[in-house]
Description:
The protein is an alpha/beta fold. The chain has eight helices and ten strands.
Amino acid sequence: xxxxxVVGLDGSRESLAxxxxxxxxxxxxxxxxxxxxxxxxGMPPDESELPELEAPRYWARRILRGAMDRLNERYPxxxxxAEQISRPAxxxxxxxxxxxxxxxxxxxxxxxxxGFMAGSVALATVAHAARPVVLxxxxxILEDDHEPDAEGLPSAHTPYxxxVVGVDPAQSxxxxxxxxxxxxxxxxxxxxxxxxWQLPYVPHALEAKxxxxxxxxxxxxxxxxxxxxxxxxxxxxxxxxxEEGRPAQHLLHATRDAGLLAVGxxxxxxRIGMHTGPVAHAVMHHVRCPVAIVPHE
Length: 297
């Protein structure tokens, strides 16, 4: 049975942009799309004659129906379904995401930085999801997936923008690289692999040699991790970026013209709190393109 692409809807501009992106991703993957709405505090399980109790159910139906109509018109090839879930939003989205190929959520923009800030529901969902979660900001449109045309104008008919993935060979990379290479393959897009390193303290006289040695070792470690995946996906054009410094800073730079960023998140055994890891936390707040957070052991 095919896992669907699932998108969480709350009627906001962010969630509608996420639904559009999710429909395009479902089309690329040949998967059904499932729309999910859940109330923060849960909705009454039974029909009620009290308007104040029935209102959340009414608005949920209206949001889902409006999104279904919009997506059916724009993406008639995608098989759609919709569901209201009477549970708090984060819990419902985590459960729905566990049955999905990937879960797509909208993220709130914040002024002045040109990036986006994940809301509390998105943060809680990312921290606890067992499957990849993609965060999409409100102004994301179809043309943003593609390179500008020859005149520098937005286009939906040019090649896809690059996929970027941040890799730490010291961590488990299998799930993350599988997602990144598959995403690049589906788009016939180049893949940029970012690996960062930092120079440990050495005496100043030895610094230049130590820097060369550490950079070379970081490159060899990355090559060892990428080798099997490049053999499996020979059509994917891979660019390696082995940079000194902090990962989030280099990922922000590498995604300035990207269509998708993928980073990993280590699964914690106890589902308490909202731990996403420093790199995932940073890129969720500042990277402009859609961000995929891929959990791994």
